[in-house]
C-alpha cells in the first residue's frame, strides 16, 4: 500500500517511499456503501457537486443549507482524523485553481505552501466546492486527497478510532481504500526529492 518510487535509487528512493507510504488509507464519503453494485459503483440517487444546488435527488431539492451541513460534517471528520493522528502541518502540492468561486479565495494559496491544520481545513473546504484542487501531505505521517463526486481520501500512519466514531455519528462513511492519487503523490514527492538533491549538490559545489 502507498507509493512506488521508480527511476530513483539508493537513499532517495527510501526517503520517497517513506514519505508516500501510509499504513492506513481511507475513502471518506457521504454515500452508503450498502448501495453499491459488484463494480463498486454507487446505485443510489444523491448529489455529487455543489454545482447541483437547486436540483432534486430522491425527491428532495438540494439546498445550500443541506450542502453546508454535509460539508461541515466532512471537514469535522477530516480534522478529527488528523488531530487524533497528531498531524498539524502539511505541504500543499499539485495545486490547481479552477475558474469558479471568488478570486480572493484562489489567490491566497501557493504551491508548496506549509499549512497548519486550520489552513488545511480551509483549503479542503474550497476543494470540496471545486474551486481548487491539490494534495495535503505530511511526509511519513498523513495525506489528504480530493476526488471527483465528493470523495476524499485520507492516509494516516496510525489508527484514529475516535474520529471514526464521529464519522458514524454524523453520517459520514469511512472505509479502507487505497487512494487513486497515491501515484500522483509519489511523482510529486520524487520531483521534490530530486530538486532537493540537485540544490544540495549545487550548494556543495560553491
Description:
The protein has six helices and nine strands; from the N terminus they run H-E-E-E-H-E-H-E-H-E-E-E-H-E-H. The chain is an alpha+beta fold. It has one domain (23-175). The strands form two sheets. The protein has a seven-stranded antiparallel beta sheet, covered by helices on one side. Strands 2-3 form a two-stranded antiparallel sheet. A hairpin with a 5-residue loop joins strand 7 and strand 8. The longest helix has 24 residues, at 182-205. 28% of the residues are buried. Mean pLDDT is 84; it is low at 1-19.
What share of the residues does DSSP label as strand, in percent? 15-25%
Identify the overall geometry: globular
What number is the mean pLDDT? 84
Task: Report strand order across the widest sheet.
Answer: 5-4-6-7-8-1-9
Low-confidence stretches: 1-19
What about the largest sheet? 7 strands, antiparallel
Keywords:
206 residues; alpha+beta; 7-stranded antiparallel β-sheet; two-stranded antiparallel sheet; 6 helices; 9 strands; globular; disordered N terminus
Amino acid at each position: 500500500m502507498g507509493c512506488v518510487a521508480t527511476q530513483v535509487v539508493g537513499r532517495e528512493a527510501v526517503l520517497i517511499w517513506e514519505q508516500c507510504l501510509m499504513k492506513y488509507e481511507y475513502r471518506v464519503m457521504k454515500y452508503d456503501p450498502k448501495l453499491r453494485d459488484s463494480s463498486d459503483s454507487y446505485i443510489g440517487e444523491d448529489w455529487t457537486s455543489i454545482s447541483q444546488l437547486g436540483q432534486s435527488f430522491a425527491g428532495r431539492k438540494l439546498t445550500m443549507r443541506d450542502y453546508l451541513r454535509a460539508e461541515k460534517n466532512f471537514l469535522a471528520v477530516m480534522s478529527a482524523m488528523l488531530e487524533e493522528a497528531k498531524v498539524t502541518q502539511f505541504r500543499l502540492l499539485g495545486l490547481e485553481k479552477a475558474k469558479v468561486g471568488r478570486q480572493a479565495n484562489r489567490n491566497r494559496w501557493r504551491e508548496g505552501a506549509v499549512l497548519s491544520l486550520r489552513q488545511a481545513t480551509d483549503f479542503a473546504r474550497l476543494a470540496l466546492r471545486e474551486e481548487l484542487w491539490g494534495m495535503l501531505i505530511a511526509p511519513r505521517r498523513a495525506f489528504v486527497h480530493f476526488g471527483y463526486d465528493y470523495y476524499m481520501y485520507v492516509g494516516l500512519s496510525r489508527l484514529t478510532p475516535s474520529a471514526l466514531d464521529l464519522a458514524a455519528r454524523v453520517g459520514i462513511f469511512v472505509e479502507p481504500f487505497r487512494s487513486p492519487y497515491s501515484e500522483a503523490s509519489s511523482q510529486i514527492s520524487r520531483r521534490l526529492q530530486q530538486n532537493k538533491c540537485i540544490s544540495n549538490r549545487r550548494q556543495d559545489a560553491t
